[in-house]
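Consider today's protein:

***
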Amino acid sequence: MDLVDIEEVMAIILGLVRGEIQLVDPQVGWKEEFLKTQQQIHEATGLALNRIEHIGSTSINGIKAKPMIDIALGVDDIHHVPVDLLKSLKSIQFYRLQVVLENEVVLAKFLDNGKLDTKTHIIHLVEYKGQKWNDLLSFRDQLNASDLLAQEYEALKLSYLLTGNKDMNDYTLYKEDFVKRTVSRNNTTDS
């Protein structure tokens, strides 16, 4: 196989237009894309690799997902995020979004079309080993450990698409009980 053929095989579906909710089949290249992005973030910011984790549905084996790479990025204090860190992330095209979430800063990378309308990567900046960090990783790890749980989550997401509502906030709320129940189950077993 020559170089062109390899690139065609490795092509992945990545990117979601603002206001669109779409789930695609699992892509072999999502994990490699995360690893490449993790290295870019590490080189730009100096953050340790263990503070840059692949989360979200693209990190869960074998389920349909929105074609965006979600990343948890752990900082020491979410209320005092160093300006240099945000500048370093901007230097690799991660831009802070106007999303307001408790104890979290959200950044996104966009398809390079000059419009900033198609997100390809999302960073969830949270406190390293804090509650949100632990919950994000726990959810991912539990779904990767249980095919049944992963399939249940995929079915829930697909059922939302049948509602006809294409609002991202509603989509997130629709999944919230499942996510909380899953995370709390792990918190109960840790006690």
